[in-house]
Here is the input.
Amino acid sequence: MAWGNSRFNTDNDTLLDVYQDAIIVLYNRVIEGRVEGISSTPEAYLFGVARNLLLKRAIQMKKISTSENVFQFIPDEGETNLYDNYNQEHDKMIVKDGLDKLDESCRKILELFYYRRYKLDAIKEHLSYENTDVVKSRKYQCMKKLKAIITASKIK
Here is the structure.
């Protein structure tokens, strides 16, 4: 409860609801035989389920969306490695928050290059830059800013 409250800043009633939902998910998976071969303890598995449910609820409440739905959280009910799944989603949220803190031009360059897979020439044309060297330099500066923002947020 303390962990969920500190990470997701939710009230105790919500945390109790999530805990009950996690127990139901665990129960259903046991009945369906989908927990065999899991190397973690039942407590750790239950904690992972609850953590994923809290993460999903936090994402839904923030209504995170992008044009490409890059950060859409879709839990896999058959997922047995809940910790890795949580860490990937957590990292996506950190990157999304970092991108939100960048100015629009940086966000656009990084989106075009990394998510839409545009070449530097195409970005130059699309955003009306002088030449590809300017785009390349600007992309480097934007990534440097994003890394600084992400590093600062991990330290907090």
About this structure: The chain has a mean pLDDT of 79. The CA atoms of residues 37 and 80 lie 9 Å apart. The two ends are 21 Å apart (CA to CA).
